[in-house]
């Protein structure tokens, strides 16, 4: 006898299937959990290592700076140079300035007080500075020797120091070659006694205040040194006079080129507060080629400025 087959209940089949599904799924979840745990541990360790790498210790702060040992630069004393000493002893002022290293080095040494062998009050030297606060010593000083230049001179012009006369002749020849005419000498050396007469005449004509702006008192004039020359333009032997010199072609040429022959224009526009005198484009002062070159190249307007001296706008008494 054959028994009929009974159908299997649906829930029994479903339960077996679910069991088969849950077992692998559980294993997968377990594996993922293990991997996640391992990954999480590695990430934490990496983060910790990164933090350790980033946390750099701060440098210690010094409570007191260490003392800096400085080695002072040796100051050069040009007056101890045998070449300077020899030039000074020989009386060759241009050579002495050159031995300093040239006009600029000479100026720097004198202005800074590093040249005790240079006396700006010595009337025999090219670097002499005479102004309203710096008279001659002695007051009646006069050069030992004088000479007349070859150029045209006024009858009462007076001579010059021989080195100045030679330089002025050379400059006159150069100005003539440049086509602006020769130079004439309107006034050169004046003795102390002559300056007394000159100043007295200025006071009589203009009064003392105006005279002091235009003419030096006796013992205070550069002309007394034999180093100063008042010049004028001369064409075919006819001279224009000193008062018009600044407006002439020769006057403009001299303003640009006088330094090449050792001269400077002593009293220029804008320097009255320093020099105490109105501009005098005709008044040339011989300082030698070395000093004159440094003076021109440095753009100086007065010897007071050049040597770092106080301004001398007026007499002290």
TrEMBL record:
Root EC class: hydrolase
Name of the protein in question: D-alanyl-D-alanine carboxypeptidase
Organism from which the protein derives: Microbacterium pseudoresistens
E.C. code: 3.4.16.4
Gene Ontology process terms (BP): proteolysis
UniProt-recorded Gene Ontology molecular function terms: serine-type D-Ala-D-Ala carboxypeptidase activity
CDD domains named in the record: LD-carboxypeptidase (cd14852)
Annotated ranges, domain D-alanyl-D-alanine carboxypeptidase-like core: 160-288
Keywords: Carboxypeptidase, Hydrolase, Membrane, Protease, Transmembrane, Transmembrane helix
Coiled-coil segments: none
Residue intervals passing through the bilayer: 21-39
């Amino acid at each position: 006898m054959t028994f009929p087959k009974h159908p299997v209940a649906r829930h029994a089949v479903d339960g077996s299937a679910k069991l088969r599904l849950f077992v692998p799924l559980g294993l997968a979840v377990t594996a993922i959990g293990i991997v996640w745990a391992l990954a999480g541990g590695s990430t934490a360790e990496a983060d910790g290592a990164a933090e350790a790498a980033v946390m750099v210790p701060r440098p210690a702060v010094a409570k007191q700076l260490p003392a800096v040992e400085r080695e002072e630069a040796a100051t050069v004393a040009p007056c101890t140079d045998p070449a300077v000493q020899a030039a000074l002893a020989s009386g060759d002022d241009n050579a002495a300035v050159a031995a300093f290293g040239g006009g600029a080095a000479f100026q720097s040494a004198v202005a800074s007080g590093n040249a005790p062998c240079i006396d700006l009050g010595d009337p025999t030297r090219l670097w002499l500075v005479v102004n309203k606060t710096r008279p001659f010593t002695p007051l009646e000083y006069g050069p030992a020797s004088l000479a007349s230049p070859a150029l045209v001179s006024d009858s009462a012009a007076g001579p010059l120091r021989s080195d100045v006369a030679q330089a002025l002749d050379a400059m006159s020849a150069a100005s003539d070659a440049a086509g602006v005419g020769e130079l004439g000498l309107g006034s050169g050396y004046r003795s102390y006694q002559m300056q007394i007469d000159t100043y007295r005449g200025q006071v009589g004509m203009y009064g003392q205040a105006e005279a002091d702006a235009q003419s030096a008192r006796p013992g205070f004039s550069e002309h007394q040194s034999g180093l100063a020359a008042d010049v004028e333009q001369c064409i075919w032997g006819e001279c224009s006079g000193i008062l018009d010199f600044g407006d002439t072609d020769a006057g403009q040429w001299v303003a640009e080129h006088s330094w090449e022959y050792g001269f400077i224009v002593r009293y220029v526009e804008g320097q009255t507060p320093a020099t105490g005198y109105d501009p005098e484009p005709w008044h040339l002062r011989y300082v030698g080629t070395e000093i004159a070159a440094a003076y021109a190249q440095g753009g100086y307007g007065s010897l007071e400025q050049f040597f770092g001296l106080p301004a001398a706008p007026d007499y002290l008494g």
